[in-house]
Amino acid sequence: MEELKRGSANSTPLTPLTFLERAATVYGDCISVIYNSMSYTWCQTHERCLKMASSIVSLGIQRGRVVSVMAPNVPAMYELQFAVPMAGYVLNNINTRLDSRTVSVILRHSESKLVFVDFQLLGIVLEAISLFSPKFQPPLVILIERDEKGLVSMAGIHDTYEAMVRKGASGFKWLSPENEWEPMTLNYTSGTTSSPKGVVHSHRSIFVITFDSLINWSVPKQPVYLWTLPMFHSNGWSYTWGMAAVGGTNVCLRKFDARVVYESIYRYNVTHMCGAPVILNMLANYPGARPLKSPIQFLTGGAPPPAAVVLRTESLGFSVTHGYGLTEVAGVVVSCAWKSKWNAFPATERARLKARQGVRTLGVTAADVVDPESGKSVKRDGSTMGEIVLRGACLMLGYLKNPEATSKCMRGDGWLYTGDVGVMHPDGYLEIKDRSKDIIISGGENVSSVEVESVLYSNPAVNEAAVVARPDDYWGETPCAFLSLKEGVSPKPPAENEMIEFCRTKLPHYMVPRTVVFMSELPKTATGKVQKFTLRDIAYKMGSMASASRL
């Protein structure tokens, strides 16, 4: 077979951008995007993306440079996931909850040449640009606004989104990547500081993860997808492009509101949703929640969902699938593949099994839990902890301008070291126990904050729970629990000693929180993750005090 070889016909670069063109052909008259009273078909979305790509190219920005977007889940945000890379640029979605200082760091580090910004976030972006030193060329600013009349004259704005769509050429021939390793997206990891970690993905990795995500979740043709997951979070776990592949309907929401979510579910006959476990918690605890008319597939990830939360949510009709991923792999790469025999188990056992992360998806070559020092696999006993490692085609190219962090994460042994601590069960399913920085070492014993949180969530009075380390002169560290309680807890809210005693009945003594802090709401990132670094700061400042606290 020596005469058979790679050629131009069989080596076209892989890119998910081709999904949009196919959607316009196959699902042209079907609804692609819904937002309030407005809707588009797939033909219209395809044309709008081509026009926008044409207008971006006309600005004369060098191909391969970074174009940023800071917007909530509105139609323009969805379109730009296609239009920016179709114009030959690297798409950079910015977290909408970041302050101007951090946004400024990202814009300078990425050397962004163009920023699309929603009208509600314009002040943050303009302030971020004002922090530039003279040596940095500020990016052009494009305003995303539904009523854009007269706004182009505002200081600092180059143009408006809709004006650029109108000026673009509908027959524009979009720019296919020269090779599939060409960078396509740039996303900054949570907790960006003055030394940001910008994750760069290629067209190839995004193509693979998009296909993989559809297959793993068994997404059918033409689902109705409600955007409760921020699109800026790993490009919506790659379902931005995935919905085009299957001709789905994207129901856009500017912000998460449980009442609006339930209204949208019934109005549009939603079939699929994604979100962090906190979203499940909010849906389950919404006072007006009632059983769904038909099941909704809900994919959750970002943190292990407590079994009690899974149980409550599924009782309403949500079919919960738990997955694991990170920005460095662009989506879900480990999921709890369900076995039919588990259906016969009691509801509490099914919920416990669903809280495990599971096994690698088809697009990942391998996933394991290893000793971070030796690199050897840990025992498959469900208790020996190690670091979760991955390898496969959906891994990032690396961190932008940070070869040291890249080599630390992607080592010479061929694994991506995630920094997540987990165990491998005898059946080959892995389970996250914590981030390595969140493990609490008390008296020489490793305490998994996730396990303690799961117990706290089983208390009927608890709405949210997070556990971090608190300094202790004798034990080194002890677990400190931060809780928010459900509204209307009767006959009265539990006291600190009652919560501690509750944990004593369900946990080994060394894992029981020594301190309980009650808060009205736990601090969170824009993706719904609890900001444990904030809670750790509070616990550290508390020192070794043992009295109850209420914030």
From TrEMBL:
Superkingdom as given in the UniProt entry: Eukaryota
Entry's Gene Ontology BP terms: phenylpropanoid metabolic process
Keyword Ligase: yes
Residue ranges occupied by any AMP-binding enzyme C-terminal domain in the UniProt entry: 451-529
Entry GO MF terms: (E)-caffeate-CoA ligase activity
Any Pfam family matching the protein: AMP-binding_C
Pathway given in the UniProt record: Phytoalexin biosynthesis; 3,4',5-trihydroxystilbene biosynthesis; 3,4',5-trihydroxystilbene from trans-4-coumarate: step 1/2
UniProt KW keywords: Ligase, Phenylpropanoid metabolism
AMP-dependent synthetase/ligase domain ranges (all copies): 20-400
PROSITE patterns reported for this sequence: AMP_BINDING
InterPro entries with a match to the protein in the record: AMP-bd_C, AMP-bd_C_sf, AMP-binding_CS, AMP-dep_synth/lig_dom, ANL_N_sf
Family: Belongs to the ATP-dependent AMP-binding enzyme family.
Cross-referenced NCBIfam families: PRK08162.1
PANTHER family found in the cross-reference section: ACYL-ACTIVATING ENZYME, ACYL-ACTIVATING ENZYME 6-RELATED
Protein name: Putative acyl-activating enzyme 6
Naturally occurring in which organism (per UniProt): Dorcoceras hygrometricum
The organism's taxonomic lineage, starting at the top: Eukaryota, Viridiplantae, Streptophyta, Embryophyta, Tracheophyta
